[in-house]
Amino acid sequence: METYRMPTVVIMGRDCVIKSGGIFKKTGRKAAVVTGKTSGRLSGALDDVIRAMKDNDIGYMVIDNVDNNPGLDNVRETADIARKAGVDHIVGIGGGSALDSAKTAAVLCTNDITPIELYDGNIVNDPLPILAVPTTAGTGSEVTPYAILTVKEKGTKASYGDDRIFPKYAFLDYKYTGSMDRDVTVDTAADSFSHAFEGYISNRTTRMSRLFALESMKIFIDSFAALRDFSMTEKVREDLLYASMLSGTVISQTGTTALHAMGYALTYNMGIPHGRANGLLFSAYIDELDKENKEMLRELSVKLNIGDISVLSDVFRVLFPERIMIESDKIRKFAEDTLKQKSMKYTPAKLDSERIAGIFRSIVK
Amino acid sequence: METYRMPTVVIMGRDCVIKSGGIFKKTGRKAAVVTGKTSGRLSGALDDVIRAMKDNDIGYMVIDNVDNNPGLDNVRETADIARKAGVDHIVGIGGGSALDSAKTAAVLCTNDITPIELYDGNIVNDPLPILAVPTTAGTGSEVTPYAILTVKEKGTKASYGDDRIFPKYAFLDYKYTGSMDRDVTVDTAADSFSHAFEGYISNRTTRMSRLFALESMKIFIDSFAALRDFSMTEKVREDLLYASMLSGTVISQTGTTALHAMGYALTYNMGIPHGRANGLLFSAYIDELDKENKEMLRELSVKLNIGDISVLSDVFRVLFPERIMIESDKIRKFAEDTLKQKSMKYTPAKLDSERIAGIFRSIVK
Question: What is the ipTM of this complex?
Fold first, then answer.
C-alpha cells in the first residue's frame, strides 16, 4: 500500500509573490516574516514580500534573526518574538534554515512546548499558516512536512515532521536564486539531487515519488554543464528551482537515507554546508549502494539516459573535487552518530559502521 | 505564472480501504455512503467500505440511488437523504456519476441552495469531508475539484468546480475495476487518456500537468494491446487506475478542451457513455488539432515514443470502430451546443461551428 500527499499550493513564475495579492489577503491579517540576516534582502524576496504586504494592507513584522543551521535557542527566540507580537501567519524567506525556522515558529506560536519537545511527536494545536518563499534551489522545504534543526542534546542536526507544517503556499520565483554564488548554487543543487536520488532508491520508494524523482534528476543532469561552469541562465535557474520542489515532494513521501544521515555529521561537527556535505559523499555512497543494488541502479541509468550509473559518481567528483582533513577517530564517531539516524533503515544496503567509515574516508585528503 | 495544487491524500494498493481504518476513524462518526445501484456492490467496494465502517465503529447509511449521468433532481434526492440523517462525512463509491453525486451531496448538506445554484460559483459553507473510492479507471474525479451533472436547463452535461470538493482521501484498489466489462473498461480508459491528452495540449497547460499527463499517456499506450484484446492482468488494471488518477490531477490544473465539450453533446442527446463519446471523436479531433499544432504534436509523439502522432489516431480507430446514425440537423445543433461550453476557449485551435460539425460527421455511419 502506498500513500501520496502534498497539500501545498505551489505558485511558480517570475514575480509570483507580487502577483499573488489575493492569496496573501486571505491568509491572515498580520504576518511574521522570518528570514536570515542576508539572503532575504540580497535575493530581493524580502522586498517583494513587503511590497505584497503593503499592497494588500496586511500588517507584518520582519524577524531576521535566523542562524545558519539554526539551533533550538535560535528558533525559540524567533517564535517568542512572533508570539508576543500576536501574528496570525508566518512567511518564511530563504534556504532551508529560514524555512525550517518559519515552520518551527508556526508550531511554537500555538503550542506551549519547548523546542526539544517538537521531537516527541505530540504537537497538539494546529500551527499558524505558513507561506514559503525559497531563495535557494535545494532544500525543498517549501513542500515538505519536515523541519531540520541543530540539536545539541542529540549531537547532530535532526528533523521532526508533522503534516500540519506543510506550507499552505510555496512561491517559486527563480529570480531570487540569482543572488547565490557559485558554491551555494552547486551545494544546493546537490542537496536537491540527493533528495530525488535517495527518494528513488529508498526502501520507502513509491510510484509517485519515482515519477517526481526521475523528472528532478533529469533536470539536474541537463543542468550539469551550467553548474560546473557556473554559466547559469534564467532557464537553468528556473529549471533547478522547479526540480528542487519536485525533490522536496519526493522526500515528503519517502524521507531520506544514509547519505543525509552522514551529511548531518559533517555539517554538525565540521560546519560543512548541508548540500556540500551530501555532494562530497555522493560518489562513494553510490559506489557502496551499487554493491547490493546493481539491477536497480542499472535500470535507473537507463531511465536517466546516462549509459551507466558511474556517470553520476563522475558528475559529483567533478562538482565536488575538494578533499578535507578528518582525523580517524572522528571518522569512527561520525559513523556511530550516522547509525543512530532513523533514515538509516530506509537505506537499501546493509551499511555497518565500517562501510560508513569507508564512505567518510573517501573524502579525506 | 503557474499554479499547482492537489490536496487529496491518495492511498493506493490492494485492500487499501480495509487497511485504512485509522483514516476512516478520524474523518467522522457517521457516513453517507453514496453509490449507484450496481457498481458499488459488483466491484466489492461497498462491502469493503462497510467492513471498514463496522471495524472502526463508524455509523453509516448506504444511499444507492445514483443514476447514470445524474441530473439535478437525482443529486438533490441523494443530498436530502444524507442531510436528514445528519451524517458528518460522505463516502462516494463508483465511477464519475457516483463520485460527483457524493461531492454534490457534500456541498448540499452544508449549503441551503438548489442544485442549479451550484453553477453560480458561490458555495458559502465548507462541504462535508469527502472520501472517494473509484471502481472505474477513467473519471479521475477522486482527485479533482469538479463535479459533472446533467443539467436540463442547460441542455447538456455541465461541470462546476470548487477547491473544497477535492476529496480528502482517495482509495485506489485495482481489484474493484475487475468488475468492469470490456466496453466499460475501454470507454473509461479512453476518458482517462483524453484527460491527459487534453490537459497536455490545453492553452492552460502547465509544467506539472505535462509531467503527470505524459506519464499517464505512456501507461495507456503500454496498455493498448491489453485493452484491444481485453486481456486485462492485475498489473494492467493497477496501471490504468494509477494513470486515471494522474489524468485527474492533470485536469484539476488545466480543465478539459473541445473534445470533452463535444462528448457531452453525444452523451446528453444520444446516451453514449462519456468515455466512449470522447473515444469515438478522438481521431478526428487530433487530426483537426494537427492542422494548427504540428510542432507541439510532433514533440509529443517523440516524448511518447510513438514515431508519429497519427499512431494515436489509429489506436482510437481500433478501440472505437463503431459508427453511429446522427441526422445532419442534429449535428448542427451539437456543434452549436459545443461552442457554448467554457472549455472551448482552452482549445489550441480555432474550431468554428463548421470544423466541429466535421468532427461529429467523422463518426457517422
Answer: 0.96
